[in-house]
Amino acid sequence: MNETETTQRLDSLKEHQEFLQQVLKTARERVLIVSPYISISAIESDNIPTLVRQAVSRGVQVQVFVDSCRNCYTDGTMKDRAMDGIAELVMAGAQVGVVNGISSNCLARDSNLIAAGSFNWLSAVRIRSGECQLKEKTRIHTGESASIRIAQELARIEEVGYGLASQKDSDRIEVTKAGRIMGLLLVLVIPTLIGNDLGNRKAGIVCTVLMLALFAMCYWQKVYQDRNEASIQ
């Protein structure tokens, strides 16, 4: 091994969390995160969107790659926790690629450091000593061997192919998430309160019908816009 090359091992959840934060804080050119699974809870727990935003503001390119199948249900629909996680990273300025089949977990900084092992950087359970937490190991490589490993990882990703999540996709995910919450609030809660205040259940029913009609109009308007965009493309 070259004198400038070193290896180190991460064993605990705390060590992995601190290392991820360190990489995002100290990177000068690029951060590469390859994690087959992605979960909004893990991302928010480690405050990753803020760290990504700060890195991007320094001119650092943050590249994230997740697997397309492992984050979907059997019918091919992407899970909410994955969609929300991708949306957060895209809005923070990261380039998120959805890859057609990856199994490796790695985290790289610039061209001189890479950590590879079994720890899922964007989905591992963040509750220390939790029942679902696995004993995962990661080995860190620095120096010339790290540069070679990073190039090999990027080459494998390019070989299998991927698609990039866009800011437009991110906005749509966020609107969908907020819309579900607001829709339930408006349709179920507010009409009931109005009906109680007026002492008339019919008022609540009328409000519910009007709001459902409004949501239906918004939905079909969105479908119409999507069809127009598709025809233009």
Outline:
This protein is α+β, with helices and mostly antiparallel strands.
Mean pLDDT: 78
Q: What are the secondary-structure elements, in order, as H or E?
A: EHEHHEHEEEEHEHH
How far is it from the N-terminal to the C-terminal residue, by CA? 53 Å
Task: Determine the number of helices (DSSP H or I, runs of at least 4 residues).
Answer: 7
**Tell me, what's the shape?**
elongated
**Biggest beta-sheet profile:** 8 strands, mixed
The helix-and-strand class reads alpha+beta
Please give the radius of gyration in angstroms: 22 Å
Helix content: 40-55%
Low-confidence stretches: 170-181, 228-233
Oligomer: single chain
Please state how the strands of the largest beta sheet are arranged side by side: 1-7-6-5-2-3-4-8
